[in-house]
Amino acid sequence: MADDIANTMEEARFVKQTRNFDIQRVIVKIGSSLLTNNGRGLDRTAIYEWAKQIAKLHKKGVEVLLVSSGAVAEGVVRMNLEERPKKLAALQACASIGQMGLIETWWSALIQHGIQSSQLLLTHDDLSNRSRYLNTTGALTQLLEWRVLPVINENDTITIDEIKFGDNDTLGAMAAAMVNADLYIILTDQEGVFTDNPRDNPDAKMIRQERAMADYLFDIAGDGGKLGRGGMLTKIRAGRLAAMGGCPTVIVSGAIDDVITRVVSGEAVGTLLTTNDEDKIIARKQWLAAHLRMSGSLVVDAGAARALTEHNRSLLPVGVVEVQGGFDEGDVVEIIHQDTGERIAVGQVNFSSNDARRVARERTEQFDKIFGSSEERVVMVHRDNLALTV
Ligand SMILES: Nc1ncnc2c1ncn2[C@@H]1O[C@H](COP(=O)(O)OP(=O)(O)O)[C@@H](O)[C@H]1O
Ligand SMILES: N[C@@H](CCC(=O)OP(=O)(O)O)C(=O)O
Question: What's in the keyword line of the UniProt record (predicted)?
Answer without folding.
Answer: Amino-acid biosynthesis, ATP-binding, Cytoplasm, Kinase, Nucleotide-binding, Proline biosynthesis, Transferase
